[in-house]
Amino acid sequence: MAFLTALGALVALLAAAYTHLFIYKQWTLPCRNVKGPEPVSLLFGNLLHLVRHHDLAQQMADWAKIYGHTYRYRVLLGKPRICTIDPAAINYILSHTEIFVKPSAGRKYLASFLGNGLLVAEGADHKRQRRVLNQCFNQQAIKDLLPIFYDKAEELSEKLLGLVEEDPQNEAAPTPTKPEGIQIGGRKIDVMKYIAMCTIDIIGLAGFGYELDSLSGTKNEMAEAFKKMFSSFGPLAIVQALIPGASLIPTKNMKDRRASLATTERVGRRLLAERKAAVHADHVESVNKIDVVGKDLLSVCVRANMAADLKPENRLSDKEVLDQISTFMFAGNETTSTALTWTLSLLSRHPEIQDQLREECLAVSTPRPSFEEISAMPILAGVVHEGLRLYPPVPVLIQEAQQDTIIPLDTPIEGRNGQMMDHIKVSKGTAFTTAYSNVHCAERTWGTDAASFRPSRHFQAKAESEGKGSEASAGGVWGNILTFSGGVRGCIGYRMATG
Ligand code: HEM
Question: Tell me, what's a Pfam family for it (predicted)?
């Protein structure tokens, strides 16, 4: 009898939950008129479809073709999510950071290893941090880092040439070369792996004046710690970050992460103490031996944070400065190496552009051109721009509304009831997926060859109209594209990544 009563109560509870989540909530949604794919699972909505698709951006582009520039799909427990490639909607989202923030679950997860660094901080904390950190990323600060970029580029080049000459039995790629791919004087190399080593080293030196020795292969405790910290992703790690108390479960991941956090904090504190002492002593030569002494982002940050004209309430705490070290490594490393790898892949598929670029590079008289000389290389600029347009390393971003709001649309959409809508109403808690990679392939802006790699489009557009595409109105921080996002939360490191 007791069992039947319990079963009855459970069924009633499930029925009530179902009615609330899937009937009442869906019916009262302000955005219910927005079309979209039917959910394939009650529990997971359309998520499984997205996760299983080999190309998430392509799936989103396919839905946009069917349902319009702005459409609705569902995630866990029927929760609505809106995907948009509409420039006016994206501009609204990026410029209203008081309304749109990172979803709290994602933020909590990032905070579990990045602390309250710039990527995680919100509101007044973010504003205060950004004001100080902007000084680390201005043009002069990045120019000062150029020698590090060249030193490491040369080390990478030597490493790759060394691999070509090495014994072919030592595999330099995860899979052996196919017989038809064997070339005299050539070698199959996992280029992304070595580029990633190079960007790790660059962020270490440029970010906080620390040699991480990734390219040289020397064992390094800080490099190991970052590697473990950022590779401990996975469903269990996410659950442990999100469910209070779950982090106490002593999994291997959790132990590794704790040990890694302890290492980055210990080394970080030492670096911070050295920088502060150097600023106090006003003779930065004692900081370390690299020839851009005191020019790394951490030094600039410490100096800016200790400036006499900065009010005490606007200064960053030591912990906040420390949190930027992991933040720079997390935000700046894989993004840059992914972008470079895709750009090289594009060049390998377009040998004619490779030839033009090589010719442009060989015409420069010095192996270490200045910032100004690099800026005067149109083919290089076009190649970088196209790589970042076609393969944005962060292809989608998710932002959640903190309050009810109305989103304007550049391209009206047809609602489920057949009426055209030039805006959509959303309630607090509705999340938006802005599919940057799809915005970048809009034929309306980029022409019928939007999906093609054509570097000349950038210098032609510049000459003709300084690029007045729709993306300009979407508010990207760099080059009329959204690769570095936009608004006050746009990528602070875009100058470092693009020059
Ligand atoms: C090709 C390379 C890069 C790409 C594609 C890229 C892209 C982005 C994007 C899309 C965002 C917005 C993220 C969000 O709103 O959640 C962002 C933010 C950020 N990026 Fe980058 N990034 C790159 C390189 C770098 C570098 C080199 C650094 C620094 C060393 C850096 C540091 C940051 C930081 C600190 C933020 C947070 C900014 C804020 O919230 O105020 N990024 N980046």
Answer: p450
